[in-house]
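note to self — DONT lose this again. spent like an hour looking for the file last time. sequence + predicted structure for the chain T wanted, 100 res
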Amino acid sequence: MPGACIKIVEAQKAKICNKNNNTKVKLLKMNAAISYNKICKTKQLTPKYIHIKNNGNNMHSKNTKIAATIYRLNQEIKSLYCKKQKLNEQLYKIHLEFAN
């Protein structure tokens, strides 16, 4: 077949290649989650995964719920940035393995 190109690689190289691709996919998903949370924060929307219950419908209860939602969203963004940093370090180590 003139258009088909088959590449034969060693098992170790294929393992590193798959690891690289999987890490890149995880990193892209993490970036999407971070941007989604930032958009929710700027537009003052509450994502579905943030459930905060409090008693009462007066103004103090509503302010408390809004403050708790914002705090929870900020904590989520911080944790996602930590995970992103770890994935970047893993990706860097994989690139070093490729270089060898």
